[in-house]
Design a protein that fits this description.
Layout lengths: L5 H10 L42 E2 L2 E2 L42 E3 L5 E3 L69 E7 H5 L9 E12 L13 E2 L16 H8 L5 E4 H8 L9 E7 L2 E5 L43 H18 L1 E2 L5 E3 L19 E9 L10 E8 L1 E4 L6 E11 L13 H4 L4 H11 L1 H13 L4 E9 L8 E9 L1 H7 L4 H18 L7 E7 L5 E7 L9 H4 L14
Parallel strand pairs: 8-10, 8-14, 16-17
Antiparallel strand pairs: 1-2, 3-4, 5-20, 6-11, 6-12, 6-13, 7-18, 9-10, 9-19, 13-14, 15-16, 17-18, 19-20
């Protein structure tokens, strides 16, 4: 405004009531309005051009830094008024970066500690940003260089991995219940896991009633670490193996007629109930009351028979997108993915079945025969040879001081193999299970290490990760071993031959543990499990107190909440139709009518 004199300016200021130029066409320059300003700005920095545009420290007119937090920048947001419109023919133009990037760089900090920042670290040289290197032990703002703020998480300006960041944008894990809740089911009790954690009941180690079946000896060559490039393939063996539910077991039926106990169960069903607070996925147990006897049963094709994979991982495997249920949409998992929870469970179940059969020496002249043969095998009907398996029926006392009559439980336990003690030469019984690795880089791996490179050198870290990601599964296996009074647990490590295929597997190693020592490492106490069993039994007995008629209940783990619900169901449930075998409904039972 070169044509305005000082006198005209003074006269103009005397007319205006407020400081600043008058908002008239005369105060504009070629149609561009006067830039806005903040009332809190000092006169000394009314146009501080050095602050605007600091890369990585200003967003929308506010500086994000420890020293400039929440300070308003003069004239912020007005640069768009002077922005130059890019022509359409320049929209596709791009600049090629010809600078040389290194795949891995290292720098030595204090004490000679090398800190690597290579591929996979946000803000590093491989991501197109400035590569930075920190000394071990420095704090969040260590490595502040050239106006950039770096933290110890490997990112620029907080762009690294932040737990909880954008959790709202993650897919909702609304899982389905393991069984369809019918409208004629009456919910009698709802117990959350916090209450289950507080239960406690001390019991004895149990008594052996009878033993059935036979056992082959374990092949100790599997305990040796495999030589490089000589991994053993997991074979598919055809052997007759059985997993009969409680009420269909002829031995348990005979023991019930003799009034040997009040409660009857199998080790896989009982372990699921005892380890209920560790479970995440939905499961269900059928409780049948006949007179004063209580049978803990399972449905055919029950989820209890499946071996879960990374159930307790912080980022567990996701279901596929193709499902019609809202809980399985927008998960980012392909419909034909082999890494969905259901596919992984089927794969792990198959691996456990074949692994226990492969690691024994099938010598008919050198095996342990128990007093009675396998109660489920019929030589006239079966064409496959019988698998190595022993069944021990054991009794536990769950009585309390206030009980007028003793309360006993009989459980059918299973053993997989035997071995000779190196010192005494006595027979020791084994429970054989297998952990499986599908792809340590895939979603749902839970931060697992690469077993092929870390199993021999960092076995403790591998096992600790599995304890975290598969807490429920390992707790159930340990409980089954303790219930069966096994001398040792053998845990095999089985991995896919190709991460993209679930057809072929290799055995990478086997580790042995004593069940009670392994339980101590997992912070697993059987007294809490027995307290849960006694609580459920008291609920069932209380709901049918004074009623000698047969009754049926279903105990369901809520698929999305840490609680279990007890339903009173009709006696013909799961018998007249197959709705409960595969269909899934909401665990609260509100939508049961819609599934009819």
């Amino acid at each position: 405004m070169a044509g305005i004199s000082l006198a005209d300016t003074i006269n103009q200021l005397s007319v205006n009531d407020e400081w600043g130029p008058e908002i008239t066409p005369s105060t504009t320059l070629d149609g561009v309005p006067y830039a806005p300003y903040s009332k809190g700005d000092k006169l000394g920095r009314m146009a501080d051009w050095t602050q605007e545009g600091k890369e990585g420290r200003d967003r929308g007119g506010r500086q994000y830094g420890r020293n400039y937090r929440d300070q308003q920048i003069y004239g912020a947001g007005t640069s768009s008024l002077f922005a130059v419109q890019v022509a359409e023919d320049e929209s596709s133009f791009s600049v090629v970066d010809n600078t040389r990037t290194t795949t891995k760089t290292r720098v030595f900090g204090r004490g000679g500690i090398a800190v690597f920042r290579g591929r996979g670290q946000r803000g590093g040289a491989q991501r197109g940003g400035r590569g930075t290197f920190q000394r071990a032990g420095q704090g969040r703002n260590a490595g502040q260089q050239q106006g950039q703020y770096y933290d110890s998480r490997g990112g620029r300006g907080g762009r690294g991995r932040r737990f909880g960041w954008r959790d709202y944008d993650k897919p909702q894990r609304n899982r389905d219940a393991s069984v369809n809740i019918r409208p004629d089911w009456a919910m009698k009790e709802e117990i959350d896991f916090n209450r289950l954690h507080k239960l406690n009941l001390e019991t004895s180690e149990g008594d052996d009633l009878d033993s059935y079946g036979f056992l082959h000896y374990y092949d100790r060559t599997y305990d040796k670490a495999p030589v490089k490039n000589t991994e053993r393939k997991l074979l598919s063996l055809d052997r007759a193996a059985y997993n009969v539910t409680t009420s269909a077991d002829p031995v348990i039926q005979e023991l019930a007629e003799k009034d040997e106990a009040t409660i009857f169960a199998t080790s896989d069903i009982l372990s699921m109930l005892m380890c209920a607070p560790r479970s995440v996925y939905s499961w269900d147990i059928v409780i049948l009351k006949q007179g004063n006897k209580i049978f803990l049963d399972k449905r055919p094709d029950s989820s209890i028979d499946l071996v879960t994979v990374n159930e307790n991982a912080a980022d567990a495997p996701l279901e596929a997108d193709s499902a019609n249920t809202p809980s399985q949409q927008q998960t980012g998992v392909k419909a034909d993915s082999i890494n969905t929870p259901s596919n992984l469970a089927n794969e792990a179940t198959m691996i456990n079945h074949n692994f226990a059969l492969q690691v024994v020496i099938e010598d008919q002249n050198n095996k342990i025969e128990f007093p009675h043969p396998n109660p489920f095998y019929s030589a006239s009907e079966e064409t496959e040879p019988l698998a190595s398996k022993a069944y021990k029926y054991r009794r536990f006392d769950l009585s309390l001081e206030r009980d007028e009559e003793p309360l006993h439980l009989i459980v059918r336990t299973e053993l997989d193999a035997a071995t000779k003690n190196n010192i005494s030469g006595e027979n020791q019984f084994l429970v054989i299970k297998a952990l499986n690795e599908f792809d340590h880089k895939a979603q749902g791996a839970g931060g697992a290490l690469d077993w092929r490179t870390k199993l021999n050198s960092q076995r403790g870290a591998v096992v600790a990760t599995e304890m975290k990601n598969n807490s429920c599964k390992l707790a159930r296996w340990t409980t089954q071993a303790i219930l069966g009074k096994a001398d040792q647990m053998k845990l095999g490590f089985v991995s896919r031959a190709n991460p993209k295929s679930a057809a072929n597997h290799v055995i990478l190693g086997v580790v042995g543990y004593k069940p009670r020592e392994f339980a101590a490492q997992m912070n697993l106490g059987l007294s809490n499990g027995w307290g849960i069993v006694r609580t459920i039994v008291d609920l069932v007995r209380g709901l049918s107190d004074g009623d000698d008629a047969d009754k049926k209940f279903v105990l369901v783990k809520d698929p999305n909440k840490p609680l279990i619900r007890l339903y009173d169901v009709p006696l013909n449930t799961f018998e007249d139709d197959e709705d409960g075998l595969s269909d899934a409904g909401l665990a609260d039972g509100k939508d049961g009518a819609d599934d009819e």
